[in-house]
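Progress note, sequence design subtask.
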């Protein structure tokens, strides 16, 4: 069971590393939030569950923590993106479309 837990934890660490690379490589705050959220949600989930598998007495506690990460991480990144948009931070020049302009009541 320890080997399986180490594999799951290792996959989680790889996702966290790729997410950190995505944060450095993306051109604007919106892409960075997206890259960081996708990878860190899955990476944290796998890492925490992997620790729970390696330590069976902690499994239920780590599962509760992992579910909390699955719920709170996307919500917090949405709040960051929305606050950035309301603050007036513009998209990258390479962005093709801006879907927020289609909504009524949008203020530039």
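Output:
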């Amino acid at each position: 069971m320890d080997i399986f837990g180490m594999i799951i934890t290792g996959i989680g660490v790889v996702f966290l590393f790729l997410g950190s690379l995505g944060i450095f490589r993306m051109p604007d705050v919106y892409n960075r939030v997206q890259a960081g959220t996708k990878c860190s949600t899955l990476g944290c989930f796998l890492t925490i569950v992997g620790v729970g598998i390696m330590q069976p007495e902690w499994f239920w506690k780590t599962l509760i923590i992992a579910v909390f990460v699955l719920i709170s991480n996307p919500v917090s990144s949405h709040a960051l993106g929305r606050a950035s948009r309301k603050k007036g931070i513009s998209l990258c020049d390479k962005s093709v479309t801006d879907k927020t302009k289609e909504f009524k009541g949008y203020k530039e």
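The first helix runs from residue 2 to 25. Work on this subtask will continue into the next period as scheduled.
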